[in-house]
Write a structure and sequence with these properties.
This is Nucleoside-diphosphate-sugar epimerase. It holds the Pfam family Epimerase. Residues 5-223 form the NAD-dependent epimerase/dehydratase domain. 34% of the residues lie in helices and 16% in strands. With 294 residues, it is α/β, with parallel strands linked by helices. It has a single domain, classed as Rossmann fold (3-Layer(aba) Sandwich), CATH 3.40.50. Strand 8, helix 5 (189-199) and strand 9 form a beta-alpha-beta unit. The radius of gyration is 19 Å and the shape is globular.
Amino acid sequence: MRVFFTGGSGKAGKWAIQYLQAQGHHVVNVDRRPSGLDCPELLIDLCDAGQVIGAMSQFVEGAELDAGTGVPTYDAVVHFAAIPRVMIGTDGECFRQNTLTTYNVIEAAVKLGVHKVIFASSETTYAICFADGELKPDFVPVDESHPTVPHDSYAMSKVCNEVTARSFQARTGADIYGLRINNVIEPHEYAEMFPAFMENPALRRRNVFAYIDARDLGHMVDCCLKTDGMGYQVFNVSNDDMSVGITSDQVIEQFYHGVEVRCEMDENETFFSNKKAKRIVGFEPKHSWRDALN
């Protein structure tokens, strides 16, 4: 597939693009800065609707000119570009850029006839990550039916983006899938970060004790590219196991006392349920910090 990928210069985007390329997809990175990857790139401002629709409807590299058949079209759009969290700039600017870029990208895609859009939503939509003080989930494991009433501008922008995507899907009939991505971990970060999580599991409370390996995130994007006809969907994206060394029963006892436990959980099972993604699009995460740290 020919894929218009926004935000490929970021942490998650770089890994996703490389995974998609390995599966045979032709990916064009669209960002404000170069990625350093071996792929064609367009450097634009996604907050400018004209630049977005222009980038999505123009030649990208010289080889495309040789066929003499006009500008090639895209089979899919993957939208990862965003201010990645609060407390980088102002709250208002985080909200403005994240909502405006998402609107511009999806609008351009559907107007140009691209019938598959995958966009990055977030674990933060469940409010826990950036809450002021401790906020416990309504129930565990947290699945896609959990309420999304966030307390911060980043999570607010992601909830707004989900509404925007659902509205475009209802109007056009395109397949538009949102990925509620948990904390993205690169392979080298296991040795750097996870020993501290083993010593103090409370460090993972705001991430619902979950994580997603950057390589498995790329796999999830590919699964969505290969699955058609679902209309609008949102999926939690996480690895199968928790990011702490204690058992699920111990997590419940120490951190989720009084919280409804909706199903029996395996000893190391993630509290950020990925069962929907596994059931519907065939997501099968392959990596674990347990393997990396023996």
